[in-house]
Design a protein that fits this description.
The chain has 618 residues and is of the alpha/beta class. The chain is 23% helix and 29% strand. The chain is built from 14 helices and 32 strands. The strands form 6 sheets. It has an 8-stranded parallel beta barrel, surrounded by 5 helices.
Length: 618
């Protein structure tokens, strides 16, 4: 039996509960400290509230403690891990190997994507030292997933939706270099979303103020079946900084998709319990997105959002007429006042406006945009009606239960049980009065016992096994039901607490005996970990060494030459513009970066460079 897990982000408890209600089998949430999204931390009490709710449905909660730790933070991190274990968190997502040198509680460890889980030998090592799950690098192809699965038995988690880091995760030092905001410490300044000028070594400006490193958002929805076949067990949605409508929409979309793929297959099951009912139609394009790419799952292709780093939303259609104060659009989508529309203007820049009034396919904007011509494509990046709908109740999740009402020695007894075998029994002493209208009495019993309200349960069947037909007051039946539901909720919550997972230290050799700055060693325990596994030479991470000279500040599978159709090796590029054949440089304000292309590995590096004399003063 293969259990498939839909893993959703939780910025806070509210979003975590919403994700579970919309079908998540697990959620990941930031701890109070040391999470890779410093703006998305939560108190231990809040996480405990989410844990208790999740465990009702056999859903899981993973806490992120996935930043690099400095020496003076190690003890505080250790204490935090124990707190998270004590409240029933199912697993920790970590990056810093120093944690494995501590006396940790028996909790499952997941290797964060920040560890850059891309190389098969290192993934095998991670499994051997005790990680229960590997979160694969976003660049991992379907073919690589198959190879990793054949050579390991550890759980494999892969992203399926959300924003993409252009750099290999955990290997980006650009923000740290520019403003001491380390992505590995949870406070990335997102320089990949900035605009850049592109120059060649002669100082010729090739591209001006474009988002040359900003990628579209990941969307693997067309490849989920192949990912299942490749051995992925957890399908992860990115977005701990996204809003509530994004979490609801994306979780619901992938819940429906996974359920459809599992339908009729006895060997596939969801990893949690309960049935989700939606009150809206999920549509990935109607919430935040920069356009979509499936990245490197199959073949390399264009994947950047060069014109804008912002959300473009859903394509509406083309402009057919521009009049004074009015714009007509050829679209099948229903528009409404309050919508935000955007388009690519004649300068290849994203422009936008709000809709004040709509009559059929003609809109009155809050301002008439310049350079909007017939034939221009429009997108809606703020869907007013959809966002309003998403603020209400958009889903509910229920566990089916059966109820048996029977006699007890001094009154009546109610047994409630779910399909997973959990039960609760409540008995009350009462006077049993024979009913005059037996049909009405039974109808009253069924009606009252079926009212599960806001509880996580829905009654599938009720059996009345009383010796005779009694008249039972509604207040008595309601109290029986309330007590039984509360007991079953407690039983399920306790039954779904994680089992202890003990980490046994070993000295399995690391695949290499030397590590450079990209191993991100910034504390004594991390160095001790690698030394215990046979590494003899290590460098300090850039967060502590600050030695940026001749270092790759980003290493990417994304290639700017390929994106601009200037790949030196691509068979479809018959001729490459001579201006692009030499060394290329990026410039952002007063910062210069040299691009280095490893065509054999099909990778690009972005390296700190001194100011180009030809450009100074421009």
């Amino acid at each position: 039996m293969q259990y498939l897990e839909l893993l959703a982000p939780a910025k806070n408890v509210e979003q975590g509960i919403a994700a579970i209600n919309h079908g998540a089998d697990a959620v990941y949430i930031g701890a109070p400290l040391f999470g890779a999204r410093v703006a998305a931390g939560n108190t231990v009490d809040d996480i405990e509230q989410l844990v208790n709710y999740a465990h009702l449905f056999h859903s899981k909660v993973f806490a992120t403690v996935n930043t690099l730790l400095y020496d003076n933070e190690l003890e505080e991190a250790r204490q935090l891990v124990w707190q998270l274990y004590n409240i029933g968190v199912d697993a920790l997502i970590i990056q810093d190997m120093g944690l494995l040198e501590m006396e940790l509680p028996p909790i499952a460890l997941h290797a964060s994507t920040q560890v850059h889980n891309y190389d098969i030998e290192r993934i095998k090592f991670m499994e051997q030292v005790g990680f229960r799950r590997i979160i694969l690098a976003r660049e991992t192809s379907l073919e690589q997933m198959q190879i990793i699965r054949k050579n390991t038995s550890v759980e494999l988690e892969a992203f399926v939706q959300g924003a993409l880091c252009v750099c290999f995760s955990g290997q980006c030092y650009m923000s740290q270099y520019l403003n001491e905001r380390s992505g590995n410490r949870g406070c990335c300044g997102q320089p990949c979303r900035s605009s850049y000028d592109l120059y060649n070594e002669q100082g010729q400006l090739l591209r001006r103020q474009e988002h040359l490193l900003s990628l579209k958002d990941f969307n693997a929805s067309q490849h989920i079946a192949s990912m299942i076949d490749a051995g992925i067990c957890s399908f992860k949605i990115e977005g701990r900084l996204k809003d509530l409508s994004y979490v609801k929409n994306t979780t619901a979309y992938y819940r429906q998709l996974l359920d459809k793929l599992m339908h009729g297959k006895e060997d596939l099951r969801p990893a949690s319990d309960g049935v989700t009912r939606l009150f809206f139609t999920p549509d990935l394009s109607r919430t935040f997105n920069r356009g979509f790419t499936d990245y490197f799952l199959e073949n390399r292709k264009a994947m950047a959002s060069i014109a804008t780093q912002k959300s473009i939303g859903k394509r509406l259609g083309k402009v057919t007429k521009v009049e004074k104060g009015r714009i007509t659009i050829d679209t099948q989508e229903e528009m409404t006042a309050g919508d935000g529309l955007c388009f690519l203007n004649t300068r290849n820049e994203m422009d936008g406006f709000l809709v004040n009034h709509v009559v059929s396919n003609t809109i009155v904007p809050n301002r008439m945009p310049e350079n909007l011509l017939p034939g221009t494509e429009l997108w809606r990046n703020n869907d007013f009606a959809f966002e309003k709908q998403m603020q209400g109740k958009t889903a509910e999740r229920k566990i089916e239960v059966s109820i048996i009402l029977s006699d007890s020695p001094n009154g009546i007894s109610l047994l409630i049980s779910d399909e997973q075998g959990h039960q609760a029994t409540v008995a009350v002493d009462c006077h049993k009065e024979a009913a005059r209208d037996t049909a009405k009495a039974d109808e009253q019993i069924v009606h009252q016992l079926s009212k599960t309200g806001n509880s996580p349960f829905v009654v599938k069947s009720i059996q009345i096994q009383l010796a005779e037909h009694y008249f039972l007051p509604a207040s008595l039946l309601n109290e029986l039901r309330r007590q039984a539901v509360a007991q079953l909720s407690d039983t399920r919550t306790m039954a779904n607490r994680p089992q202890p997972v003990h980490l046994e230290k070993n000295d399995i050799p690391y695949p290499t005996d030397s590590l450079d700055y990209r191993a991100n060693i910034v504390n004594r325990l991390s160095r001790q970990f690698y030394e215990r596994h046979g590494v003899t030479t290590t460098e300090n991470g850039l967060e502590t060494s600050h030695d940026y000279d001749n270092k790759a500040l980003m290493t990417t599978k994304y290639c700017l030459r390929y994106e601009l159709k200037q790949c030196l090796l691509h068979k479809n590029n018959k001729t490459v513009d001579p201006d692009y054949q030499g060394t290329l440089y990026l410039r952002n304000n007063k910062n210069y970066f040299r691009l280095s292309f490893d065509c054999k590995r099909c990778e690009m590096q972005i390296i700190k460079a001194p100011p180009l004399p030809l450009l100074e003063g421009r």
